[in-house]
Amino acid sequence: MKLEIKGSPLPNIPWQPRAAGNEDYVWRYSANPVIDRRPLPRVTGIYNSAVVPFDGAFTGVFRTEGMDRIPHLHVGRSPDGIKWTFEPRRIEFINADPEVTRHEYAYDPRVTLIDGIHYVTWCNGYHGPTIGVARTRDFVRFEQLENAFLPYNRNGVLFPRKLGGKFAMLSRPSDTGHTPFGDIFFSESPDLVHWGRHRHVMGRGGEWWQGTKIGAGPSPIETSEGWLLFYHGVINTCNGFVYSMGAALLDLETPWRLRARLKESILTAEAPYELAGLVPGVCFPVGCLCDAPSGRIAIYYGAADTVSALCFCDASEIVERILNA
Ligand code: BMA
């Protein structure tokens, strides 16, 4: 299959070829974690964070947690996607209406480039978790927009282009706590304020690794076979939830129609840094880089709610596996 990826070349993508003998769909960076705990004074974890190419280098929005364990968002910058420095102050979002910028907590950011502007979506505390939305041109000034949904919702992930003239978002309606359910839904908006035409995309269940809940990961990658979506799937074990990574293909023009999805997870908690941390047993994908046309993909994922790790895959190979699932 000759897969076409809609996107820009990214020759400096962080990359490591698959080790000989490794038959997994996705392989880990050998020097993981890329970002260790304590990146700033009194920050005990930095994870579930989104990285994008910016000005020939890389930037990102990172979830940090300090000694009070309340998550906030910080900007990070890197020449190569591996070595990072972080703004010591959390992002101060701007809006004339203080109700919009009212800050309780912010976590699990995604960053999506649409028509030359970077949009940040995250789990935003507003009387319970909902989806915060902001835009930036320079990663210095962030204008916060209205929350996309009523509480409770998590994992709001924008598509990198408008569909039928509308912004499009995946999300996962939830509850106030460690939600014991969850499917992925699609919504669209003409103006990033009013969201509607909600559609069910795909559900939990079936294979045990994704039996409890699922949620979209990084922004979908557009390919000639459909939108390639990495997501997290959760199993409820006698020791609590375990988070793995899955892959699916959504229809290009009607992305609430699932084309196919892998039955197996593509990455599950196995490495020491995924099994030991503040929440052991978590692989949580949020950011993704892709070099079109080579199809090299680098996925940033939070490990054990403590550190940030990197894994790699090949777009053609993973799409072919999904289509043959
Ligand atoms: C989810 C979110 C994620 C976290 C995961 C595992 O509900 O809070 O940020 O990684 O739980 O604790």
From TrEMBL:
The record's CDD domains line, in alphabetical order, gives:
GH130
- Alphabetically list the UniProt keywords: Glycosidase, Glycosyltransferase, Hydrolase, Transferase
Entry annotated with the keyword Glycosyltransferase:
yes
Q: Which molecular-function annotation in GO is an example for this chain? A: hydrolase activity, acting on glycosyl bonds
In Pfam terms, one family for this protein is: Glyco_hydro_130
Which superkingdom, per the lineage?
A: Bacteria
Q: Which InterPro entries match?
A: Glyco_hydro_beta-prop_sf (IPR023296), Mannoside_phosphorylase (IPR007184)
Does the UniProt entry include the keyword Cell inner membrane? no
PANTHER family attached here? 1,4-BETA-MANNOSYL-N-ACETYLGLUCOSAMINE PHOSPHORYLASE, GLYCOSIDASE
Give the family from UniProt: Belongs to the glycosyl hydrolase 130 family.
Q: What is this protein called?
A: Glycosidase
